[in-house]
Amino acid sequence: MKPRQKIDPATITDMAELQRLLEPTGGKGIRVDRDDLIASMKYRIKGQDPAITQMANRVFAGYAKQERRQPVATFMLVGPPGTGKTESAKALAEYLFKSEKDLVTLSCADFKNPGEAMTKLIGSGAAYKGSEQGGMLTRPMFGKKQRVVLFDEIEKANPEIYDVFLTMLQDGYVKEQGNGKAADFTHAVVILTSNLDHEKCGEIAAAFEDPEARTRAYKEHFNARGFARPEILDRIPDVVYFAPLATEVMAEVAVQKLIRLVQDYHMVPNRIEPLAAFKLIEAIQGSGIRMLEQTATARLGNDLAHLANDRVERIDIVYREGRLQAVAAAA
Fold first, then answer.
1. CA-derived radius of gyration, the chain
2. Can you give the residue ranges of every domain in the chain?
3. How does pLDDT run across 235-262, given as a tens digit for each residue?
């Protein structure tokens, strides 16, 4: 059988071409080893094994499809802040595409103003100044279709942006306003995160062991809450819960963040005192993973910069004189 001609969605300007775009596209190009994906994500995201397995199963199945009309996978990640939801998007991009640069992050707090939200996402109309610049959602997809697309903290966005999900999640494309070109999402993984009602989400997670039953319960709750129109939630196959992290998991993450921070200065982490990791966790007062990295940088950055300038190679992270310190490792 003669292979179908490849379609560049950036050239789509009329409905005839759009119909051709809606023909299923193949899943060739990326092959996912499910077990390897799970192991890779668990290395970066601690304490969320059920969530990681649920996501990996869907991504594995999505990329195995030879005909696809929708994104590879679509997830709504719920649960308390600082539990690894955003990090999971980064981990997926790193695993699938070998670089976090292929993650398109849309902070939904930037799309809260009515009228401006959709313009930022998909560009302004042709008659308006700046229409050639396109949208923050559509324009990156013209350059490369294989991406992870993250809508971070979706509850902070103006509800008008939910309209983009109608065609993106159902038909695999979004049209840019200024030129009518269609961005192709059939090679992308789409992730929405939300901290909304995370205590109730925890109750639902405890009540339903089966992921499909749990997803239905989440949707019923969010429908009753008026969070999004039912036709939007219906287009999200998986709602995934990220649980609060136990203290021992936070300690493991703290060590991981400290190791990465030292490596960012091109030095080798030799030893991290358990007390130093504990004091870092204590400093963030339950704020979650995101604050671990910020706090570690704030408290150790000056020490690390001096050591790097002095060409020190091996570093110990210790707690001395009432503060976190980075010191040269003993020879």
1. 22
2. 9-241, 247-328
3. 999 999 999 988 888 888 899 999 999 9
Q: What is the fold of 247-328? A: Helicase, Ruva Protein; domain 3 (1.10.8)
Query: Which residues in the chain land under pLDDT 70?
Result: 1-29, 124-133, 286
Q: How far apart are the first and last CA of the chain?
A: 67
Q: CA 180 to CA 18: how far, in whole Å?
A: 10
- By C-alpha distance, which of 177, 171, 235 is closest to 20? 171
**Could you tell me which residues come within 8 angstroms of residue 300 by beta carbon, excluding any fewer than 6 positions away?**
258, 261, 317, 324, 325, 326
Q: 3-class secondary structure for 130-177?
A: CHHHCCCCHHHHHHCCCCEEEEECHHHCCHHHHHHHHHHHHCCEEECC
Looking at residue 84, what DSSP letter applies? S
d(CA 93, CA 194): 19
pTM: 0.82
CA distance 110 to 228: 18
Hey, is 242 helix, strand or coil?
coil
Contact call for residues 279 and 273 (beta carbons, < 8 A): no
Pairing assessment for the beta strands 323-328 and 314-320 based on DSSP bridges:
antiparallel
- Domain 9-241: CATH superfamily is P-loop containing nucleotide triphosphate hydrolases (3.40.50.300)
Q: Residue 23: its pLDDT value, please? A: 43
